[in-house]
Specification:
- This protein is 42% helix and 23% strand.
- With 154 residues, the chain is of the alpha/beta class.
- It has one domain: 3-Layer(aba) Sandwich (Mannitol-specific EII, Chain A).
- Strands 1, 2, 3, 4, 5 and 6 form a six-stranded mixed β-sheet that branches.
- A hairpin with a 2-residue loop joins strand 2 and strand 3.
Length: 154
Amino acid sequence: MEITDLITRDSVVANLKAGSKKQMLQELARIAAGVTGQTERAVFDVLIERERLGTTGVGNGIAIPHGKLPGLDRLHGLFARLAEPIPFDAIDDQPVDLIFLLLAPEGAGADHLKALARVSRLLRNHATCEKLRTADGAVPIYDILMEAPTSRAA
């Protein structure tokens, strides 16, 4: 599973504006609805339900909200850099500014886990995250994501 399998240029947002975790998830749901063909409400409900189980804020300013949706034909990813970091209840209590949303079909057990692992490996690379934070727009962000190292180490 590679990042190129998950996102397109249309699923990268450079300066998402949100003042809270809930507002950010609502904005991501709105954008993801357009990318996936699902309703905004269905996407939002899945994301909120997952957050109730435990935060998807993994530390170092990064969150990987994810969930499974009936009706999806494949895995979908969406990357957003926030205009300003927001509190997210992350495991390190730091605000979040880099978000990689992952939505999977209901039956995508192993593929969903592989995609989460791949995204996690990508965003653990501090140099890549620094480039994502300083990139000038969605196209350069997309290019960075496509060129990121593909280390298989977990």
